[in-house]
Amino acid sequence: MLRTFSITDIGKRRKLNQDYVFASEKPLGNLPNIFIVADGMGGHNAGDYASKYAVETIKKEIEDSFEKNPVKILGKAIESANSHIRKKAMEEERLRGMGTTVVMATCLKDKYLEVANVGDSRLYVANDREIRQITRDHSLVEEMVRRGGIDRKEARSHPDKNIITRAVGAEDTILADFFDVELKPGDIVLMCSDGLTNMLEDEEIHMILSSQESVEKKGEELVKAANDNGGRDNIAVILMEPFADEE
Protein backbone atom coordinates (compact mmCIF):
# COMPACT_ATOMS: atom_id res chain seq x y z
CA MET A 1 0.00 0.00 0.00
CA LEU A 2 1.19 3.48 -0.91
CA ARG A 3 0.91 5.94 1.97
CA THR A 4 1.35 9.66 1.19
CA PHE A 5 1.17 13.12 2.67
CA SER A 6 1.41 16.57 1.07
CA ILE A 7 1.64 20.08 2.49
CA THR A 8 2.54 23.63 1.48
CA ASP A 9 3.39 26.53 3.77
CA ILE A 10 3.87 30.21 3.01
CA GLY A 11 6.98 30.37 5.21
CA LYS A 12 7.93 33.37 7.35
CA ARG A 13 9.00 35.99 4.81
CA ARG A 14 6.72 35.80 1.78
CA LYS A 15 3.32 37.47 1.32
CA LEU A 16 2.20 34.98 -1.34
CA ASN A 17 2.48 31.21 -1.59
CA GLN A 18 3.84 30.48 -5.07
CA ASP A 19 4.29 26.75 -4.37
CA TYR A 20 1.58 24.38 -5.52
CA VAL A 21 1.27 20.64 -4.96
CA PHE A 22 -1.00 17.92 -6.28
CA ALA A 23 -1.01 14.39 -4.89
CA SER A 24 -3.32 11.60 -6.00
CA GLU A 25 -2.97 7.98 -4.88
CA LYS A 26 -5.78 7.14 -7.31
CA PRO A 27 -5.31 6.64 -11.06
CA LEU A 28 -5.32 9.65 -13.37
CA GLY A 29 -5.67 8.72 -17.03
CA ASN A 30 -3.31 5.80 -17.67
CA LEU A 31 -1.12 6.54 -14.65
CA PRO A 32 -1.80 4.60 -11.41
CA ASN A 33 -1.11 7.75 -9.33
CA ILE A 34 0.52 11.15 -9.75
CA PHE A 35 2.45 13.54 -7.53
CA ILE A 36 3.51 17.06 -8.56
CA VAL A 37 5.40 19.94 -6.92
CA ALA A 38 5.59 23.30 -8.71
CA ASP A 39 7.38 26.44 -7.50
CA GLY A 40 6.28 29.50 -9.46
CA MET A 41 8.20 32.63 -10.33
CA GLY A 42 7.17 36.01 -11.66
CA GLY A 43 6.22 39.46 -10.41
CA HIS A 44 3.13 40.21 -8.32
CA ASN A 45 0.78 37.22 -8.51
CA ALA A 46 2.25 35.72 -11.71
CA GLY A 47 4.29 33.11 -9.79
CA ASP A 48 1.37 31.59 -7.92
CA TYR A 49 -0.68 31.68 -11.13
CA ALA A 50 2.10 29.90 -13.06
CA SER A 51 2.51 27.04 -10.58
CA LYS A 52 -1.22 26.36 -10.27
CA TYR A 53 -1.88 26.75 -14.00
CA ALA A 54 1.00 24.39 -14.85
CA VAL A 55 -0.27 21.71 -12.47
CA GLU A 56 -3.87 22.02 -13.72
CA THR A 57 -2.67 21.76 -17.34
CA ILE A 58 -0.51 18.72 -16.51
CA LYS A 59 -3.43 16.99 -14.79
CA LYS A 60 -5.72 17.56 -17.79
CA GLU A 61 -3.07 16.36 -20.25
CA ILE A 62 -2.51 13.16 -18.24
CA GLU A 63 -6.25 12.58 -17.95
CA ASP A 64 -6.76 12.93 -21.72
CA SER A 65 -3.64 11.04 -22.83
CA PHE A 66 -3.93 7.82 -24.83
CA GLU A 67 -0.24 7.04 -24.21
CA LYS A 68 0.61 3.92 -22.22
CA ASN A 69 4.28 4.68 -21.54
CA PRO A 70 4.55 6.66 -18.25
CA VAL A 71 7.64 8.57 -19.39
CA LYS A 72 5.89 9.73 -22.57
CA ILE A 73 2.81 10.72 -20.55
CA LEU A 74 4.90 12.83 -18.16
CA GLY A 75 6.96 14.36 -20.97
CA LYS A 76 3.96 15.39 -23.08
CA ALA A 77 2.22 16.81 -20.00
CA ILE A 78 5.22 19.06 -19.28
CA GLU A 79 5.38 20.17 -22.93
CA SER A 80 1.68 21.02 -22.83
CA ALA A 81 2.10 23.04 -19.61
CA ASN A 82 5.01 24.91 -21.19
CA SER A 83 3.08 25.92 -24.30
CA HIS A 84 -0.03 26.88 -22.30
CA ILE A 85 1.98 29.10 -19.93
CA ARG A 86 3.80 30.75 -22.87
CA LYS A 87 0.48 31.47 -24.58
CA LYS A 88 -1.15 32.82 -21.42
CA ALA A 89 1.84 35.08 -20.69
CA MET A 90 1.57 36.57 -24.18
CA GLU A 91 -2.14 37.27 -23.70
CA GLU A 92 -1.94 38.99 -20.31
CA GLU A 93 0.53 41.76 -19.48
CA ARG A 94 0.51 41.01 -15.74
CA LEU A 95 1.65 37.43 -16.43
CA ARG A 96 4.61 38.31 -18.67
CA GLY A 97 7.78 36.47 -17.71
CA MET A 98 6.04 33.96 -15.47
CA GLY A 99 7.38 30.43 -15.15
CA THR A 100 7.54 27.54 -12.73
CA THR A 101 9.64 24.59 -11.71
CA VAL A 102 7.99 21.18 -11.92
CA VAL A 103 8.97 17.86 -10.39
CA MET A 104 6.52 15.01 -10.89
CA ALA A 105 6.47 11.29 -10.20
CA THR A 106 4.30 8.22 -10.56
CA CYS A 107 4.81 5.05 -8.51
CA LEU A 108 4.25 1.90 -10.57
CA LYS A 109 2.96 -1.35 -9.07
CA ASP A 110 6.30 -3.11 -9.37
CA LYS A 111 7.67 -0.38 -7.08
CA TYR A 112 9.39 1.65 -9.76
CA LEU A 113 9.25 5.41 -9.68
CA GLU A 114 9.12 7.35 -12.94
CA VAL A 115 10.27 10.94 -12.37
CA ALA A 116 10.38 14.09 -14.51
CA ASN A 117 11.78 17.47 -13.53
CA VAL A 118 12.44 20.98 -14.79
CA GLY A 119 14.06 23.55 -12.50
CA ASP A 120 15.36 23.17 -8.96
CA SER A 121 12.51 21.50 -7.10
CA ARG A 122 13.78 18.09 -6.04
CA LEU A 123 12.99 14.43 -5.51
CA TYR A 124 14.91 12.40 -2.92
CA VAL A 125 14.81 8.74 -1.90
CA ALA A 126 15.79 8.01 1.70
CA ASN A 127 16.04 4.98 3.97
CA ASP A 128 17.63 4.27 7.36
CA ARG A 129 21.13 4.38 5.88
CA GLU A 130 21.18 7.28 3.43
CA ILE A 131 19.38 10.01 1.52
CA ARG A 132 19.88 10.33 -2.25
CA GLN A 133 18.94 13.28 -4.43
CA ILE A 134 17.55 11.71 -7.60
CA THR A 135 16.85 14.86 -9.62
CA ARG A 136 19.54 17.31 -10.68
CA ASP A 137 18.91 21.02 -10.19
CA HIS A 138 18.71 23.11 -13.34
CA SER A 139 20.42 26.07 -11.75
CA LEU A 140 23.44 28.30 -12.33
CA VAL A 141 25.07 27.17 -9.10
CA GLU A 142 24.54 23.48 -9.90
CA GLU A 143 26.29 24.03 -13.25
CA MET A 144 29.20 25.61 -11.37
CA VAL A 145 29.38 22.61 -9.00
CA ARG A 146 29.33 20.17 -11.93
CA ARG A 147 32.19 22.01 -13.62
CA GLY A 148 34.21 22.03 -10.40
CA GLY A 149 34.07 25.80 -9.96
CA ILE A 150 32.64 25.60 -6.44
CA ASP A 151 31.91 22.80 -3.97
CA ARG A 152 28.56 21.77 -2.44
CA LYS A 153 29.14 23.76 0.73
CA GLU A 154 29.88 26.97 -1.18
CA ALA A 155 26.83 26.33 -3.37
CA ARG A 156 24.46 26.51 -0.40
CA SER A 157 25.35 30.12 0.39
CA HIS A 158 26.20 31.35 -3.12
CA PRO A 159 24.49 34.67 -3.98
CA ASP A 160 23.27 33.27 -7.34
CA LYS A 161 21.78 30.08 -5.93
CA ASN A 162 18.22 31.12 -6.87
CA ILE A 163 19.01 31.58 -10.57
CA ILE A 164 17.54 28.62 -12.43
CA THR A 165 18.57 27.65 -15.96
CA ARG A 166 15.39 25.84 -16.97
CA ALA A 167 11.75 26.52 -16.13
CA VAL A 168 8.34 25.64 -17.50
CA GLY A 169 7.27 28.73 -19.47
CA ALA A 170 10.76 30.20 -19.93
CA GLU A 171 11.38 29.13 -23.55
CA ASP A 172 9.30 27.94 -26.51
CA THR A 173 10.85 24.48 -26.22
CA ILE A 174 11.22 22.67 -22.92
CA LEU A 175 13.82 20.11 -21.93
CA ALA A 176 12.87 17.93 -18.97
CA ASP A 177 15.05 15.33 -17.25
CA PHE A 178 13.67 11.85 -16.60
CA PHE A 179 14.70 9.32 -13.97
CA ASP A 180 13.75 5.70 -13.38
CA VAL A 181 14.15 4.65 -9.74
CA GLU A 182 13.81 1.16 -8.29
CA LEU A 183 12.36 1.38 -4.78
CA LYS A 184 13.16 -1.04 -1.97
CA PRO A 185 11.38 -1.83 1.33
CA GLY A 186 12.08 0.93 3.86
CA ASP A 187 12.43 3.64 1.21
CA ILE A 188 10.60 6.94 1.61
CA VAL A 189 10.27 9.42 -1.27
CA LEU A 190 10.45 13.18 -0.70
CA MET A 191 9.46 15.75 -3.32
CA CYS A 192 9.98 19.39 -2.36
CA SER A 193 10.57 22.97 -3.43
CA ASP A 194 13.78 24.84 -2.67
CA GLY A 195 12.03 26.52 0.25
CA LEU A 196 12.82 23.31 2.12
CA THR A 197 16.28 22.51 0.76
CA ASN A 198 17.61 26.07 1.14
CA MET A 199 16.71 25.98 4.83
CA LEU A 200 17.81 22.44 5.72
CA GLU A 201 20.92 20.39 4.98
CA ASP A 202 20.32 16.94 3.47
CA GLU A 203 21.49 15.40 6.77
CA GLU A 204 18.81 17.31 8.70
CA ILE A 205 16.16 16.18 6.22
CA HIS A 206 17.41 12.60 6.51
CA MET A 207 17.19 12.67 10.29
CA ILE A 208 13.50 13.68 10.15
CA LEU A 209 12.70 11.11 7.44
CA SER A 210 14.43 8.35 9.44
CA SER A 211 12.27 8.85 12.52
CA GLN A 212 9.60 6.35 13.54
CA GLU A 213 6.86 8.98 13.17
CA SER A 214 3.92 8.73 10.76
CA VAL A 215 4.31 10.10 7.23
CA GLU A 216 2.04 13.03 8.21
CA LYS A 217 4.16 13.88 11.23
CA LYS A 218 7.37 13.72 9.17
CA GLY A 219 5.92 16.15 6.63
CA GLU A 220 4.85 18.58 9.32
CA GLU A 221 8.26 18.29 11.02
CA LEU A 222 10.07 19.14 7.77
CA VAL A 223 7.99 22.31 7.35
CA LYS A 224 8.48 23.28 10.99
CA ALA A 225 12.25 22.77 10.76
CA ALA A 226 12.48 24.90 7.60
CA ASN A 227 10.51 27.68 9.31
CA ASP A 228 12.58 27.39 12.49
CA ASN A 229 15.71 27.89 10.35
CA GLY A 230 14.35 31.13 8.88
CA GLY A 231 11.51 30.14 6.53
CA ARG A 232 12.78 32.52 3.85
CA ASP A 233 10.62 31.02 1.09
CA ASN A 234 7.43 29.06 0.54
CA ILE A 235 7.76 25.38 1.44
CA ALA A 236 6.22 22.46 -0.47
CA VAL A 237 6.53 18.82 0.58
CA ILE A 238 5.14 15.53 -0.74
CA LEU A 239 6.09 12.31 1.02
CA MET A 240 5.48 8.78 -0.26
CA GLU A 241 5.93 5.49 1.59
CA PRO A 242 5.54 2.87 -1.16
CA PHE A 243 5.92 -0.14 1.17
CA ALA A 244 3.76 1.13 4.02
CA ASP A 245 1.88 -2.17 4.41
CA GLU A 246 5.04 -4.32 4.29
CA GLU A 247 6.86 -2.84 7.28
Q: Care to describe what's here?
A:
This protein has 247 residues and is an alpha+beta fold. The protein has a single domain (3-246), classed as 4-Layer Sandwich (Phosphatase 2c, domain 1), CATH 3.60.40. Helices cover 32% and strands 26% of the residues. The chain has 7 helices and 10 strands. It has helices at residues 46-64, 70-91, 140-146, 152-156, 194-197, 202-209, 215-228; strands at 3-9, 19-24, 34-41, 99-107, 112-118, 122-126, 131-133, 177-182, 188-192, 235-241. Strands 1-10-9-6-7 form a 5-stranded antiparallel β-sheet. Strands 2-3-4-5-8 form a 5-stranded antiparallel β-sheet. Strand 4 (99-107) and strand 5 form a beta hairpin. Helix 1 (46-64) crosses helix 2 (70-91). The longest helix is centred in the N-terminal third of the chain and has 22 residues, at 70-91. The protein is globular, with a radius of gyration of 17 Å. The protein starts with a strand and ends in a 6-residue tail after the last strand. The mean pLDDT is 92.
